[in-house]
DNA sequence: CTACATGTGGCACTCAGTGTCACTTCAAGG
DNA sequence: CCTTGAAGTGACACTGAGTGCCACATGTAG
């Protein structure tokens, strides 16, 4: 069967749909691209698009939740000998270490997420699970409750450092993202008095 | 002229419209209230509503920008003898010190802003100017650039402490918000090694 | 009384997001 | 080979936010 009755160009995965959307956003801007446009380009209907994404805002995020799960696993697997700060440092750098082949796409994605107001706002909701993973780890390591003030404030600070790093990286594409992150995290660690 | 031709009940200020909206949100929930509902309750048209607010999401914020301006002024007026940390501490507590008569409304407003997902997301954009004011002050005091990493990370941490305080306060209405904030800020200050 | 600036309402339009239902695809089991 | 059921898809209609445009009212300065 050389030709399926279904259009073989039909895109039916979150990852691929995200790529198609990203391409259109690059061409026409985020606001300038309608869900209809993405659906058409992917060979599916508008209705079907919303079965893959809860909202247009989620397109640039792709499979983010999977990555957060990986971060959580990474942290849990840290040997007890490694300090909390060192563990977070390594896990966060690793979290943002994308293969060369994907770096362009990743930059483009982050450029949108950090500069389009609607997406900046929406990011808060997506980042919440990331911060939660960090906060849980800090709480577990320090033996305090996750509901305590400190884990959350610190996880916010880590998010801030990450975002600040991305902003530097987007302005200076030459430097390695992981290098910037490494520096930012080091700066952050020097801000904390007690060993976390 | 006992009766103006214009409906005297017509509401024509951001502050009052915000109050009308808040009341409806309390009754029917944020999602359960349409802009049309608010406009009707305020005696104006839907079109006019959008001349007061850029979006429905801005209703709970009311005149926030004015408050941020006041924060900025407060910080600038700080005598040079007061440390950066102490100045921020005082200014932030003051920023959140509402008169008794408005406390109920303020609690209701914050309850929405911290619990309705769309509003949580949108808050990021509104808080940005607050953080900017903090970051500018820190940068000025430490003689570094506002573009530097540290002012931003620290301002994020202050925001996190504020939000965490509000969450505590919303769960335990008995305690004073300013007291919770005071405690949270003290905790935060102990996290910083160098004098900011 | 006129002229001009500002505020308002009505209307039509775009687009995101949702509920419903009919249709297709495909795999499992007779 | 046929049936049955589950899962994915598309068409359609609808709600609601937000915008552009234009006509009308109000208020103020000359």
UniProtKB/TrEMBL annotation, chains A, B:
InterPro entries (alphabetical): DNA-bd_HTH_TetR-type_CS (IPR023772), Homeodomain-like_sf (IPR009057), HTH-type_TetR-like_transc_reg (IPR050109), HTH_TetR (IPR001647), MftR_C (IPR041347), Tscrpt_reg_TetR-type (IPR023851)
Name this polypeptide is given: Mycofactocin system transcriptional regulator
Keywords for this protein: DNA-binding, Transcription, Transcription regulation
Matching PROSITE patterns: HTH_TETR_1 (PS01081), HTH_TETR_2 (PS50977)
Pfam families noted in UniProt: TetR_C_14 (PF17754), TetR_N (PF00440)
PANTHER family reported in the protein's UniProt record: HTH-TYPE TRANSCRIPTIONAL REGULATOR RUTR, MYCOFACTOCIN BIOSYNTHESIS TRANSCRIPTIONAL REGULATOR MFTR-RELATED
The entry's DNA-binding region: 34-53
Organism, as annotated: Microbacterium kribbense
Residue span, HTH tetR-type domain: 11-71
């Amino acid at each position: 069967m050389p030709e399926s009755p279904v259009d073989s160009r039909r895109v039916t995965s979150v990852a691929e749909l995200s790529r198609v959307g990203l391409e259109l956003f690059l061409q026409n801007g985020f606001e300038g691209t309608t869900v209809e446009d993405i659906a058409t380009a992917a060979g599916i209907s508008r209705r079907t698009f919303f079965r893959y994404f809860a909202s247009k805002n989620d397109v640039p995020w792709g499979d983010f939740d999977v990555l957060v799960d990986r971060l959580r696993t990474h942290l849990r697997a840290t040997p007890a000998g490694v300090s909390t700060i060192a563990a977070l440092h390594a896990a966060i750098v690793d979290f943002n270490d994308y293969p060369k082949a994907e770096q362009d796409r990743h930059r483009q994605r982050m450029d949108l997420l950090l500069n389009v107001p609607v997406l900046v706002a929406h990011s808060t909701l997506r980042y919440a699970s990331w911060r939660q993973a960090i906060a849980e780890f800090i709480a577990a390591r320090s033996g305090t409750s996750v509901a305590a003030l400190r884990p959350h404030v610190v996880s916010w600070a880590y998010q801030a450092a990450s975002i600040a790093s991305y902003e530097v990286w987007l302005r200076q594409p030459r430097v390695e993202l992981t290098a910037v992150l490494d520096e930012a995290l080091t700066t952050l660690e020097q801000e904390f008095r007690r060993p976390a």
